[in-house]
Request: fold
Amino acid sequence: MGERGVTLLELLATITIVMVLAAVAMPLSKYSTKRSQELELRHSLRELRLAIDEFHKDWAREGDVLIGQLCVKNKSSCKEYTGTTGYPKELKTLLEVTLTGSEATVRETTPIRRYLRRIPLDPMTGSTDWGLRCYQDPPDVRDWCKEDVFDVYTKSDVIAIDQSKYREW
Reply:
């Protein structure tokens, strides 16, 4: 009758194979987590930038010259919510703009224009505190001029998988 069981050599060989596979899988899981954060960051940046562009299309102005469709119809709202270039004065303006022109008197309730439902989270910092740039700022500025919001970026100084900085995206 044959004996049942595993020899010590077979056990060591099996453990060695499992450890090699685990050692290969660890870096892959690390990169997959980082890659998913990067995809989420790109999505959030795209969402914010599209909302800023849509706002600028509706509320465009050059100083006191009102150009955008909503800016012409809602002059007091235009000057209250936009900078001199037609970009929003602050990021939370994209959540709600109260219209004051002819459209506001037609309805019983005050009409509101929304460009975002919420400010997306920055996946790199875990907050809704984004870095902001004004229209006249150079691309590498760190201090916001507080006149308008032309662009957004993450405040994280971490290096991406492709060796670029997240804040330069």
